[in-house]
Amino acid sequence: MSKIGLIGGSGLYDIKGFILKQKKTVTTPYGKPSDQYLIGKIGNTEIVFLPRHGKKHNMPPHMINYRANIWGFKKLSVDRIISISAVGGIKKGFKPGDIVVLDQIMDMTRNRKSTFYDGKGGVMHIDFTEPYCPELRDIILKAGKQARISLKNGGNYVAVEGPRLETASEIKGFKLLGGDVVGMTGMPEASLAREAAICYSGISVVANYAAGISKTKLTVPEVMEAMNASTEKLKQLLKKTFSLISEERKCTCKDALKEAKI
Ligand code: HPA
Asked: What is the pTM of this model?
């Protein structure tokens, strides 16, 4: 049976119903992952959980070793990852507490090691037209319907470097470009997962209105509070999602490296 990886963002450090079997320290050619991987079960599904910022939340977004994190999942035989993150809402109607099943990305990060293919293993150009696994996205949307959890179907994630929050002008620009939400961790996580031929989906919780969208100043307690308020819904959604995932992958993520090499 395949294993499902879960990356927890701010506010999601554990999941109810998770029976922990093992904590695993994984070494990788790229250095250390954010923390130990927690391996266990929810119902009948094998889950591998990694807190993206470390379990004590001591790793800022720009310092996360994204390559080690994804490599670690691969090493643990994970072939699907569900990634949870907190975001600022840009699109009209995206308000704090909303849960968004992402469908696109704009990468505005600058200083991150963003590929496993830096020349040594050949020159690779993976297709990234659809950055999130469409099959996994559909399963999450179906789980939302069945569990009666309201979800936003689709969102364009603008990935920024951080750790500072954005200016009002930057958010205005992102909005003009078609960005719906903004966050600091979505890239290169998503593209590394594709390079590793792992299905990857992104579920974002809108923690605050992005800079300048509301008149009030952004604060960290506000972000954490919104995340905590949504945690229960998120856990139910995940549990339902896991129960709907079948063994076989019908999408093309597993073939990401075919016809990608020069
Ligand atoms: N901007 C960037 N990252 C974030 C935000 C934001 O407003 N909220 C939560 N993560």
From this structure: 0.95
